[in-house]
Amino acid sequence: MIDFVWLWTVILGTGVFLYVLLDGFDLGVGILYGFAPDTPARNLVMNSIAPVWDGNETWLVLGGVALLAAFPLAFAIILPALYFPILVMLLALVFRGVAFEFRFRDAEHRTFWDHAFNYGSVVATFAQGVVLGSFIQGFKVDGRHFAGGSFDFLTPFSVFTGLALVFGYALLGAGWLILKTEGDLQAWARRLGRWALLGTLVGIGVVSIWTPLMDKGIADRWFTWPDIAFLSPVPIITLLIAFGEWRALAGRREVAPFIAAIGLFVMSYVGIAISLWPMIVPHAYTLWQAASSPDTQVFMLLGTLFLLPVILVYTSWSYWVFRGKVRADIGYH
After folding, report:
1. What is the Cα 25 distance to its own chain's centre?
2. Hey, how many other C-beta atoms are within 10 angstroms of the C-beta on 87?
3. Other beta carbons less than 10 A from residue 329's beta carbon
4. Which residues touch 333 (CB under 8 Å, ≥6 apart)?
5. Of the candidates 189, 185, 183, which has an alpha carbon nearest to the alpha carbon of residue 257?
6. Per-residue pLDDT tens for 269-292?
7. Which residue of 168, 173, 204, 331 is most buried, as measured by CB atoms within 10 A?
8. Beta strands 145-146 and 326-327: pairing type?
9. Taking a C-beta distance cutoff of 8 angstroms, is the pair 101, 305 a contact?
10. What Cα–Cα distance (Å) separates residue 261 from each residue in 7, 42, 90, 131, 255?
11. Partners of 141 in beta bridges
12. What is the 3-state secondary structure (H, E, C) of the chain?
């Protein structure tokens, strides 16, 4: 019998990463929005993501549905464990979306909507980081059920990962603004990007040390021979990308800062995958133990393999249509 768990793992992993990347940069733009120097700058910052921000959240839905359909046991444990941070994240995303639309239609209260867009972006990002940290540290499980308390997710580690992700998304947002703007606004994005990079590197470094300290199995995977030799390219490549990102932010290249920021997220994603593989409920259930029946996987796969290319084509076309710089007088060119 064909093992569809591998395919669903790729679909789920791809969906989560594309959400982190695509919604990550527009949440990062929202985080940097609060530091914009004046109203014209805020207008350009917001217009840089106006055509694409809502489509980016499609990948969040795909990730949730893939988890429910292919790994229902994991869904049944993770959702109750992370109910509050997920709820806060969703409410912040809704509040942020409302602020985005009303800012242009309710000029009398524009300052309020400016703050709402900024704070909604920060809160949603922080909540996502808390979810990530809670997932890495694992959950209390009794049989096939979550056995912990409602606030078990709130730990020093999860709070730190929340703060680290704020800096990470800000770095993605700075890269996007460098790509989409020019002149003084681009220079402003480069300055903030360097601060965001420093915060991101501190976050990556601390999490990389803290994670193996929490779990001996993860420590053995990274630091015993011969694994340490096979896995050493991961931190080395990360450091090289970080060096290239710093140079790109300090120079005049426009595409490189965004690409390098993506590279840092790719390497962080790889590092987490190496640490936790093959667990989908850390320290409790593997991907195969949490998977749905083969018949269910096949049935859901038929629809997914049809819709996934449609989503990819639509997303790619949107970015192609709205390529180029955004300007106050003519929008895109």
Report:
1. 8
2. 11
3. 5
4. 324, 325, 327
5. 189
6. 999 999 999 999 988 899 999 998
7. 173
8. unpaired
9. no
10. 27, 23, 25, 21, 10
11. 146
12. CCCCHHHHHHHHHHHHHHHHHHHHHHHHHHHHHCCCCCHHHHHHHHHCCCCCHHHHCHHHHHHHHHHHHHCHHHHHHHHHHCHHHHHHHHHHHHHHHHHHHHHCCCHHHHHHHHHHHHHHHHHHHHHHHHHHHHHHHCCCEECCEECCCCCCCCCHHHHHHHHHHHHHHHHHHHHHHHHHCCHHHHHHHHHHHHHHHHHHHHHHHHHHHHHHHHCHHHHHHHHCCCHHHHHCHHHHHHHHHHHHHHHHHHCCCCCHHHHHHHHHHHHHHHHHHHHHCCEEECCCEEHHHHCCCHHHHHHHHHHHHHHHHHHHHHHHHHHHHCCCCEECCCEEC
Maximum CA extent, the chain: 64
80 burial (CB, 10 Å; 0-12 / 13-18 / 19+) is middle
What mean pLDDT value characterizes the chain?
A: 89
- Summarised one tens digit per residue, pLDDT across range 143-181 is 888 888 888 899 999 999 999 999 999 999 999 999 999
Q: Residue 251: which region, alpha, beta or left (left: phi > 0; alpha: psi -120 to 50)? A: beta
